[in-house]
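Structure tokens please, single chain.
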Amino acid sequence: MTDARREGNNRLIVVLFGLMFVAVADNQMISPILPDLMATFGIGAGRAGLLVSVYAIAAAVVSFAIGPLSDRTGRRKMLIAGLIVFTAATLLCGLAWDYASLVAFRAVTGAAAGVLSLNITACIGDHFPYKRRGAAMGMVMSGYFAAMILGVPAGAYVAEAWSWRWAFGVFAGAGLLLWAPALAVLPRRVPTASAVGTDGAARTTSAESAARAVHAVSLGNLASSYGRFLTRTGPLTVIAASFLVSASTVGFITYVGTWLRDVYALSTDWIGLIFLFSGLGALLGSPLAGYLSDRAGKRGVVVVSGLVMAGLLAAIPWITGLLPVVFVGFILTGIAGAFRHAPLQALVTAMASDEERGTLIALKNTVAEFGIAGGTAFCGVLYVAFGYPSVGAACGVMAAAASFVILFWVREPGEPDGPDQDSS
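Here you go.
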């Protein structure tokens, strides 16, 4: 690889990291400022929770709708459009004049975040060959963990020092600062063979592009685009694994704070400290996981880290009276989660060609959102009926099941019966 190519790749990773950071931080920031929003608009906890739900629903719906469109128009256009809408909607959240307007603006922000998340992952798959994709994915996905341990406290600090409106303004400003780098660095899409004439010139006109865009989001085309993945073992398996991963991880995390308070009588700041160190472990582990997976194989790293994660999820709730051990357990959980996350994302991108990668990622993201909803509801029932150890056991089983389905039914490029694309 030439120095110019390496420098270009590094710039792309930095920009995608920034996009991931602002999208995740804006979403996670709602939790610490929720009491301020409740006081400002005179709403209860139930109505305030709608701000989180509408964000996630909008992200899932829009991601599902634009998956095929992303494959036709290219990641650059989608990322820039998503960033512009995200910045404007975040700013409008800070200017909201009543509860209804804030809900509407959070829905738009969530929709834009869904566009960003989908196309960030697809862009990495398009631009980096599979043998180096794990390292790139690990660096970019570390923006997710950086947002949780740096961006969220920063937003909370701004809200405390000035107001929650300024917190939204800060992240809108961060999005605005990314416009110029995104325009300069994001790679332009290379026309596909079907759009290129015999002389190598692109043949697709603006009118044809618009027609394709409309067709891409039609119900019939969505059914056809997504349906073909449901008959192929590799894509179907990583989709199922993503459902189990999301259900087990979020189901476990949702009730951690309640358990720590009930068993160890921890205050909110101590619970936050545990999450902080777990996030630091994930932040440091993500780049290392990507680097290692490029050398040892993505599938193997996903399987091993997933089994380690399963053991930790099942074991931690049984620890009582040994808070330092619990503390270490959560740090190890953060590291194991990071080791599973980036290689799994890289593995997903290899299950589809460039022309359909966005569609697969959109389907995977949508199914993962259902996993979050289902896992949280299921674990809530278990927690009330049997306590947190039952939650840990159920989440451990789901995490282990995700590893086993990948072990038995997924093949990497270059392996027997593995996908052909991106084996370079």
